[in-house]
């Protein structure tokens, strides 16, 4: 390896510094199948798989087993209304609850509807019989959909029966309907009124996957220079400036992932119909900060470990469970202190808060300012630690070639 100049030999943006390092990295990226796969092919493939998974927006035709021991007009009406809902589909009938429970355990259905003997008679006598729904709540999303759809179907049949009975006793139809539900809840869903799981989950899942690709590519790009003993040439190409070397190294990746991010948002908003009620320019700027934040954290892991293998492990540990702590499926305000801390040190948590505010909620720009400042801190603060450390590693051949 040739001798490389000292750091003071060139400024970060001198012709022989930053631009030379940038050209060097751009050439390495175009010749690396790993980088091209991680920057473009894998993100786009996973985006496509997830979009196809949530293409219907809401779960439909979830299989339900029916045990009708009454076999009356009322019980058949309840079953008909269950089957008529978009979310549920009657997949079979059983003679007793034990047979239905066995089918649930074997995964043949998600729920069992049990209509007891004497249902119609007890309802006519005003004894309020119970229709029982057994469902597997291990899958919270599926359980919630089943519970809501079954309750609405049964309540709808019950209200219609009550109204007909009142009208048969001579009550006015409007008055009969009022007596059935004297106090009503007037609900207004402010955001995502269609209950689309695609609009809810896709804008969170896709960036969460993207952060993993950004981190892995960054660790590979920076750590690979030390692993393969090319750190000296990298520093030399930048005119001996670690800052120029890192800027030139990272900027082609930033540009590539920005293109991937633009593709991601275009897919979501144009193809999937994901709403953007806020400021699109702020969302794009935050996306660039999000990419730079994970690049900064990737450099920090390489600097702290000096090992590509260990840095990769740290990156996986850091990014792998990020979605669980992002506040999308479990509210941040309900998390215990350790989980709240872990959520706070993940750039994706702050980015997704901004995405939800500018996407569905249409919040003013000022409401998302705190998320922008936090992302900017992830970009600017870690270099105070990793830049001096990486500079020393670049000049120490004893640290090159480590796993």
Itemize the secondary structure elements and their pairings.
Blueprint: H1 18-31, H2 33-53, E1 62-68, H3 73-84, E2 88-93, H4 97-105, E3 111-115, H5 119-124, E4 132-135, H6 140-168, H7 173-180, H8 197-227, H9 231-237, H10 242-271, H11 280-305, H12 308-319, H13 337-344, H14 347-361, H15 369-380, H16 383-394
Parallel strand pairs: 1-2, 1-3
Antiparallel strand pairs: 3-4
Helix pairs in contact: 1-10, 2-8, 2-10, 3-6, 6-7, 8-10, 8-11, 8-12, 8-14, 10-11, 11-12, 11-14, 11-15, 11-16, 14-15
Describe this structure in words.
The chain has helices at residues 18-31, 33-53, 73-84, 97-105, 119-124, 140-168, 173-180, 197-227, 231-237, 242-271, 280-305, 308-319, 337-344, 347-361, 369-380, 383-394; strands spanning 62-68, 88-93, 111-115, 132-135. Strands 2-1-3-4 form a 4-stranded mixed sheet, sandwiched between helices. It has 403 residues and is mainly alpha-helical.
How helical, in percent, are the residues? 55-70%
Which spans have pLDDT < 50 for at least 5 consecutive residues?
Answer: 1-10
> How far apart are the termini?
19 Å
- Rg measurement, Å: 29 Å
Number of helices: 16
Q: Please indicate the percent range of residues in DSSP E strands (runs of 2 or more).
A: 5-15%
Mean of all residue-level pLDDT scores: 86
Shape: elongated
**Within the largest sheet, what's the order of strands?**
2-1-3-4
SS content category: mainly alpha
Number of strands: 4
Major sheet characteristics? 4 strands, mixed
The topology string of helices and strands comes to HHEHEHEHEHHHHHHHHHHH
